[in-house]
Amino acid sequence: MTSRPRQPRVGFASLGCPKNLVDSEVLLGALAKAGFAVCEDFRDADVIVVNTCCFIRDAEKESVAVIREALDLKKQGVCRGVVVTGCLPQRYGPGTADRFPGVDAVLGVAESDRIAAACRFALGDPGTRGGSPTAAIRPATAPCSADVSRLRLTPRHYAYVRVAEGCDHTCAFCIIPQIRGPVRSKPVERVRAEVEELARDGTREICLIAQDTTAYGTDLYRRRALHELIRAVSAVSGIDWIRILYAHPSGVTPELIETMAAVPQVVPYLDMPIQHVTDRMLGIMRRGHGKNHIHRVVDSLRARIPRITLRTTVLLGHPGETDADVDELVSAIEGVRFERLGAFVYSNEAGTRSAGLPGRVPPAEAARRRDRVMQAQQAIAFARNRSRIGETLSAIVDAPPARGRPALGRTEGDAPDVDGTIQIHGKGLAPGRMVRARITGSNGYDLIGRIV
After folding, report:
1. Composition of the chain by helix, strand, coil, percent to 5
2. DSSP-assigned beta bridge partners for residue 423
3. What is d(CA 245, CA 169) in angstroms, rounded to the nearest whole number?
4. Are 360 and 414 in a shared domain?
5. Arithmetic mean of pLDDT, 169-188
6. Torsions phi, psi of 181, nearest 5?
7. How far apart are CA 26 and CA 146, in angstroms?
8. Is 3 a residue whose pLDDT tops 70?
9. Helix (H, G, I), strand (E, B) or coil at 188
10. Domain final residue pick, 345, 360, 387
11. Which of 215, 319, 327, 411 has its CA 20 to 30 A from that of 205?
């Protein structure tokens, strides 16, 4: 009796942001469909795929480290092939393979249909292919493809839904438009079909993502149409929460605010990176608006959606930034009191406008400025959490009780991975369950509660 050949096994590393995570889920789905078995441990794999990020220097360093780890395993004979995909090859082209001798194939961000062939190539006899790596890197201008048949890396009850690819903004510090190309929105019908597939798979919360979600529709419909998309996907049965991430302040329109307030599935939450607040720095960064616009948008959101949680990010140490700019930024943060805020140090990226600007800030000084901002935000976040004791909030369970600790979840004001958690005491707390929790305490950025 002839035994069946063993399925080839693939180990997968997904690096970077949720947009890259969706790419990884699509790639894994294509590999599973092609007969590959996915394993958690690189040491169990026949071929290792590294889906890279290179948005900033630290992300690129992480990608390089993981590629080198995979290549070391190949040299040791633990695995037979290494494939590098994503933003790193897209940015540096076919020469990516020369940078990492031993890599068998490199694929850009638009090559999900070629991943299975690349992995089979990596597992082939080197003697039959001359040992030369293969490369497939098309320009990032193709329509945003459907993200279907994904092999999910998130828990079953929540998922990221990409509504568009690329970016039309010309922010001086950002390399993303050069990697991901211009805005290409998915048709409303396609996004809704993806959400329906996720709902059938048990998803209860969807996080809408793009480089700039508020630019959705500007290419396809010649208008900002995120509010129309939200109303379409809110009609999908089984979806309880819709969360909006990565909104640009210039695209937060009255129509979007009204839709967020009116559609019950939209959680009162918005991730809206502002990067800075002084008119001088916003101009240098080419953000396309001034500080008064930011304040008007924040005021409009809070007036129409009083319970809203606003998350933002700011960038410290950009060329030209002065102590006075940081003073004004800290003052604005203390005045506006964003519920969630992340601060990052400027990364000098070759090919961006900022890379050639004078007035470079020493890295140690940039880090000091970031720490100052985060100290100011920490006081705001901790005080807000203490003020919530006694309130009853809606929450979703992410992890069940284990080893003496309570269940872990998130409130409507907490996005996956980047925000705080809530420890939930009670019974029957399975992942994906929606509960009402009375807040009994806080622990820094996190809350403690009991189901009611």
Report:
1. 40, 20, 40
2. 408, 448
3. 17
4. no
5. 95
6. 80, -170
7. 9
8. no
9. helix
10. 387
11. 215
At 344, which helix (H) or strand (E)? strand 340-345
pLDDT class for 128, splitting at 50, 70, 90? very low
CATH at 101: 3.40.50.12160
32, 61: one domain: yes
Q: What is the pTM of this model?
A: 0.94
Alpha-carbon distance of 36 to 41, in angstroms, equals 15
Query: Considering the domain boundaries, does residue 4 fall inside one?
Result: no
**What is the mean pLDDT of the segment spanning 278-288?**
97
Give yes or no for residue 125 having a pLDDT over 80: no
Between CA 308 and CA 361 the distance in angstroms is: 35
The arithmetic mean of pLDDT across residues 181-206, rounded, is 96
Q: Which of 38, 36, 13 is nearest to 88 (CA)?
A: 13
Q: Look at residue 103 and tell me if it is in a domain.
A: yes
Q: 324: which 2 tokens?
A: 């006075």
Q: What is the CATH number of the domain that holds 181?
A: 3.80.30.20
Q: How far is CA 290 from CA 274, 279, 352, in A?
A: 10, 5, 21
Q: Residue 258 is inside which H or E element, if any?
A: helix 254-262
CATH number at residue 408: 2.40.50.140
pLDDT in tens, 48-62: 999 999 989 999 999
Which residue, 91, 106, 136, sits at the end of a domain? Answer: 136
Q: Is pLDDT at 225 greater than 50 in this prediction?
A: yes
Buried-exposed string 395-432: b where 16+ CB fall within 10 A, e elsewhere: bbbbbbbeeeebbbbbbbbbbbeebbbbbbebeebebb
**Could you tell me if residue 13 is inside a domain?**
yes
Parallel/antiparallel/unpaired status of strands 392-399 and 434-443? antiparallel
pLDDT in tens, 300-328: 999 999 999 999 999 999 999 999 999 99
Residue 316 tokens, joined: 């410290």
Report the pLDDT value the prediction gives residue 132, as an integer from 0 to 100.
63
Q: At what angle do helices 18-33 and 115-122 cross, to 10 degrees?
A: 70
Please name which of 151, 230, 162, 242 lies closest in space to residue 205, comparing C-alpha atoms: 242
CB 115 within 8 A of CB 31: yes
Domain span at 443: 392-451
Residue 364: CB atoms within 10 A of its CB come to 9
Structural domains counted in the chain: 3
CB atoms closer than 10 angstroms to residue 286: 14
Dig out the tokens for 315 from the structure: 């960038």
